Amino acid sequence: MLVNIEQLNSAFESAVDNVLNAVAESGYAIIEQAIPLALINDLLLDCQHQQDQFVAAGIGRQQAQQLNSQIRKDKTLWFNGKGHAQQQYLELMGNIQQAVNRHFYLGLFDYECHYATYQQGDFYQKHLDAFKGRSNRVLTTVCYLNTPASGGELVIYDQTSPKPLAHVAPKAGTLVIFESERFPHEVLAAQSLRHSIAGWFRTNNSLAGMIDPAQ
Predict the structure, then answer these.
(1) pTM of structure
(2) Is the pLDDT score of 110 beyond 50?
(3) 5-202 sits in which CATH class?
(4) pLDDT tens digits for range 176-191
(5) What is the residue extent of each domain of the chain?
(6) Helix (H) or strand (E) holding 5
(7) What is the pLDDT of residue 87?
(8) Is residue 139 a contact partner of residue 100, using CB atoms and an 8 Å limit?
(9) How far is CA 49 from CA 29, 42, 64, 115, in A?
């Protein structure tokens, strides 16, 4: 189904305002029905149709990346920007990037994201989205593509306390955004298939005009 991007942008305006207000107040935002259902359905189909290309998710970035099934067991597929669904989602995230830069002067440079599939029993232990020597990921996003009956909750913590700040049950269309270096988080074991998009708004920390590589 081809979704009209002008209608998407119009429907998304209130979600952007909610994101800005929540991030300003607490550093994280949980917005239900943030992404129009028509686009969520298209993204879910795109995700499902490419399951044979998914790979076991690693820990770290680039040369430092390694597999560790004791820490995480999900499978991922990075966006390539092909197809209307991916392009429309990236455009909506671009709207958030522009709004955040206008309001918070963060200098967000780009956005990278991947599909993530959790099968029954898959999890991701508590961690921060800040890699040693790689602090260019500023805001983390999670967008849910389906609504499992149970399991697979995202748990967000404060660094100063073991007590959870929020439990987020996967629900199609919900968008979660939080400061990448501030909030440890984990994904509890899935009880059934859980499909989502994980993404990061980044700054460019490279020197001499070079662009930080994605992923």
Answers:
(1) 0.89
(2) yes
(3) mainly beta
(4) 999 999 999 999 999 9
(5) 5-202
(6) helix 5-26
(7) 96
(8) yes
(9) 30, 11, 30, 12
